[in-house]
Amino acid sequence: MNIITELNPIINSLNESDKLDYIRKIIEVQQRINDLIEENQWLKKEKDKLYRKLEVWNLLKFEDDAYWLKDMKDGMQGPYCPKCYGLEGKLVPLVKNGEQCPNCGYTRRKIRL
Prior knowledge:
- The protein is an alpha+beta fold.
- Helix content is 54%, strand content 14%.
- The chain has two domains: 51 residues; 50 residues, no CATH class.
- It has a three-stranded antiparallel beta sheet.
- The longest helix is centred in the middle third of the chain and has 40 residues.
- It is rod-shaped, with a radius of gyration of 27 Å.
C-alpha cells in the first residue's frame, strides 16, 4: 500500500463532511508526492547511467592515439575512437586494421619507434 492510497479514506471522510478546502490541500499534497516519486525514479536511472559510465572509464586506457578497454581475460580490447568517446561517450571500434573510425572518420596515427 502506498501513501496515496492511504490518504483516500481521509479524503472520503472529509468529503462527507463538506471540507472542500482540506480536500484541495490533500490533493495538492498527493500531486507533490507523485512528482517526488517520479523525480526519484528519474534520479535513480541517471545515477545508474553515471555508474555505468564510471565503470567503463575505469577500464579505459589511452595509448597509441586510441582507447583500449582492459579485459580481465584477454588483456586489452580495442582500439576505440578517442574522438567519439570524448564527444559522445560512445566506444566505437576502429576499422581498417584499427586505424579509422567508421562513425566520425577519425584516423589514428600509429606510433612506431
